[in-house]
Amino acid sequence: MPKINHKFIIPLHKTYWGKEEERAAIAALRSGTGVGDLAFSEALTRELSRKLNVPYVLPTGSGTAALELACALLLKYGHEVILPSFTFTSCANAILLAGAKPVFCDIDINTYNIDPAEIEKKITKKTKAIMIVHYAGMACAMDKILKIANENNLYVIEDAAHALGATYNGKNLGTIGNIGCFSFHGTKNVASGEGGVFVTNEKEIFKNAEIVREKGTNRSSFMRGERKKYSWVKVGRSLILSDILSAIAFEQIKKLDKITSLRRKNAEYFLSKLKRLSSKIILPIVSEGTNPNWHIFAIRIPRGLRTQVIKGLREFAVEASFHYLPLHQSQMGKKLGYKTKDLPVSEEVAATLIRLPMHPKLKKSEIDYIVAALAKII
Length: 378
Prior knowledge:
Layout: H1 19-31, H2 39-52, E1 56-60, H3 63-74, E2 80-84, H4 89-97, E3 101-105, H5 116-122, E4 127-133, H6 142-152, E5 155-159, E6 167-168, E7 171-172, E8 179-183, E9 196-200, H7 203-213, H8 219-223, H9 243-254, H10 256-274, E10 290-291, E11 297-300, H11 306-315, H12 331-335, H13 344-352, E12 353-356, H14 364-377
Parallel strand pairs: 2-3, 2-4, 4-5, 5-8
Antiparallel strand pairs: 1-9, 6-7, 6-10, 8-9, 11-12
């Protein structure tokens, strides 16, 4: 066992930034005003379209902005959207801001993703869409979800904030449903500090998204030379990504394959080393057809031990964390009529999950240290 070193500091995540990102940001600062949809935004759009094999791409100010854009396009007052409770607040906020109602659904105990069997139980005449979340970069059961959506004439919005670089049966996550929403937040695999992107395969959705994203105007088509002037044509929002952040994101996207490869190697090494603790912890499970990007490496431990284990890891200078309080258990969730024990699997996962450090710069020696510390604690 490696010697425990109390001065060792291992954070949950590190950005994979280098001189390329610095040069790009400086070039963007020097070349224009930094507003969106300039040269670097266009370069980012082209590169993402190529990388994801999706025709329509719109950089947004955040992953949250992409979700809000999706909901603004598809939803109206009185609609319902089925989504997992085990997710970030952005999902439910986007639905509520569009005037619709979030309907929380339970998750699969193995993947921590929305359970298709539970989706079917929640569908009503008011249901308009299913919002799925590819937790940790692990794919939802897309074949089953798309079948349910098609049979019930529902849209599928993919929250792929965790999922850039991950695939399901060879298809890029975020490009399988009607709309995909990605994040470039500083904690994500591809990071520009803040930022996100909205993608779709559907031309009509894209045309409307362009207008809503640009404050309700047809300025984008004007900038392409398709009209002599632009004007206000719809209710819109300001959701565009700064060209400075687009410049950083563009350099990051060029490194996506390398970032994903390094994370996969680290995950494989983690799994091999943690096997000896498999009687005491639950390791991540990769479902059939999934090639994850390992945005998060999470284990689960018996109820009641999590606080002790996280505290212990931090005493060994290893940053560890729990994750979401299920939305149905939050203050807002209670206002929406939910109560404890409504979604037992979400509650079980939320009470037992621990996130361990995972990033491209993580070294094998650091993984050895984390595993040794964990073994000593439990």
